[in-house]
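Just wondering, does anyone understand what follows?

——
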Amino acid sequence: MTLADSRPRTQGPARGRPRSEAVEHAILEGVMKLLEEGVPLAELSIERIARTAGVGKATIYRRWNGKEELFVDVMRAAEPPDPELPGTSMRDDLVVLLEALRRRGLMNRTSAILHNVYAQMKSSPRIWKAYHINVVNPRRELGKEVLRRGQRNGELHADIDLDLANDLFTGPMLLRAMMRPDDELPEGLAEQIVDSVLAGLRPVSSPQP
């Protein structure tokens, strides 16, 4: 698998001199190359990564605090980029977010390397926690912000639990994509899920889309 680019990470403390995109790209590609060759995450040392990428260990440590942070960036770069929301309505934004989940599900099914790495990440509590803090949680917060705007605009009950509502929208897509790999992920599924859930959550006086 070739990484098209490296996704920007959440802002953290400055570490060393300014980053070189070419160097970071080489390091991320080096990690993915080793994973494609079947090297388990547990056996990916910084020394081995540096040797494969053609850089020194210090070069990696200037950019990442350790393997956990580096692996999170590798997975972020290998996944589709987060979508831009149209902002036209809560319903439209939710459809875009769920469509992104559907596409990630399709990619995980067709990419053996991504599927295997996800499985290995779950066996490493530190990596799995770092992935959730830096990737999963910001995506969940984005979904909740869409719902907050919907509450302010009268598209959603003002007293609804946003965490629960977010799970009601994303849960069906995640279930099909991750837990039931034989289920289809057809086009239009995002719209179907959003409209089905909104039928129960939308205020009675709220106009239909």
User: Anything to note?
Assistant: Confidence is low (pLDDT under 50) at residues 1-18.
